[in-house]
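Protein entry
_____________
===
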Amino acid sequence: MSGALILPTNLVNAPHWLWIFSWKVTERSWLSESAPPRCKFFIWLASLNQCWTTDRLARRGLDHPDHCPLCDQEDETIQHILTSCVFAREIWFRVLSLVGLQQLTPSQDDLVFQEWWRLAFTRVLEQQQKGFNSLVILVQWWLWKHRNTCVFDRPPPRLVSLKSSKISKRRPTSGVWLVP
């Protein structure tokens, strides 16, 4: 589990081989977490900045929205959607509050999702770390799915009532968070 703590501090502009190295170092820690494979695959793509967000579409000369579809304030990058977006930070606060970890909510200064996750992980009690990693994986998946709904179906972003949301259902004995 300690391998999850050995990430370079800024991977946004890192060379591809460094991303692969970081993936190899950390895969043992979060690949074993209780989350669906599609969520784990997405987090791998997000860690490589390979998600089709506005910044990536613009680099390829494709049509793209001007701003983040969730907050309409900043340019959209995968790092923004998962960490620094006002909407995402509110979701993180609500979810982390459900388990008493609201102090770990990303701040506006947390620009790199992996770095925020690494630092937050170090502040979680050892017996909560597996559940915390699963929760992070599932929330980032929910944020991406909600972003896609806003982009393709055009409804405005909506803060959900997490008490009734699928995110808040827990397996009673293990404390692992579930999203069907």
User: Anything to note?
Assistant: The mean pLDDT is 76. The chain has one domain: 33-57+64-168.
